[in-house]
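Good morning,

Attaching, inline, the backbone tokens for the sequence recovery test we're adding to the shared suite. The designed sequence is right after.
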């Protein structure tokens, strides 16, 4: 298996690039944001709980996200590998992922981190909000999401730096330019 984490602040293009990477490398795309939005749309107990947090731009509690992910991992262990998109978002989630992949004789091969300036993140998310109607894509919530990223999510970088798996990638430019940069790193790591 070949497993990568696509990482970066909200609006850095994780979801956008995951769709392209999944096709090229035939990986299972596991987006915790998408799974949570699906649960919200279906009004499941997890979805109702997640709505409270996501609407404010806060992280959904680790226990809920971890519980949700376990089943999806086991359903796809015969695949070529995973793109984890939006997970891990805390050190606790990173440790959980490491232990659970080790139990299944595999690991994360690279944390690909998209680096994008704050003003560009805000611009992209406001633009997306106009079309998607996502309740977390409005200015006050976007600013909180970016702050939450710096406070709670950025420490995940250090976790993977210690494992020698951290790869920063410039996330400014066209979608295709950024995709080429990501593929360049993957070809080196594979
Ligand atoms: P996510 O769904 O992960 O979404 P995201 O961080 O907003 O976006 P992403 O980086 O994927 O941006 P995208 O490609 O769409 O998280 C949403 C919320 O879910 C979190 O705030 C949290 O509450 C909760 N959550 C999710 N996972 C969790 C976890 N593990 N633990 C706890 N809570 C969790 O790009 C954004 C826009 O930019 C798009 O409109 C796109 O078209 C545009 N764009 C992309 N690349 C571009 C480029 N190169 N140039 C111009 N525009 C570009």
């Amino acid at each position: 298996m070949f497993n990568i984490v696509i990482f970066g602040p909200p609006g850095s293009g994780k979801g956008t690039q995951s769709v392209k990477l999944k096709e090229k490398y035939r990986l299972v795309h596991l987006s915790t944001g998408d799974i949570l939005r699906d649960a919200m749309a279906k009004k499941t107990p997890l979805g109702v709980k997640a709505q409270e947090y996501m609407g404010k731009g806060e992280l959904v509690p680790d226990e809920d996200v971890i519980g949700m992910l376990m089943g999806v991992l086991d359903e796809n262990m015969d695949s070529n590998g995973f793109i984890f998109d939006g997970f891990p978002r805390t050190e606790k989630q990173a440790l959980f992922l490491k232990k659970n992949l080790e139990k299944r004789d595999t690991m994360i091969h690279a944390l690909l981190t998209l680096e994008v300036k704050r003003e560009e993140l805000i611009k992209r998310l406001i633009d997306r909000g106009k079309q998607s109607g996502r309740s977390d894509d409005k200015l006050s919530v976007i600013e909180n999401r970016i702050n939450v990223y710096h406070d709670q999510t950025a420490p995940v970088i250090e976790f993977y730096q210690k494992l020698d798996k951290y790869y920063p990638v410039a996330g400014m430019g066209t979608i295709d330019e950024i995709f080429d940069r990501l593929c360049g790193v993957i070809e080196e790591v594979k």
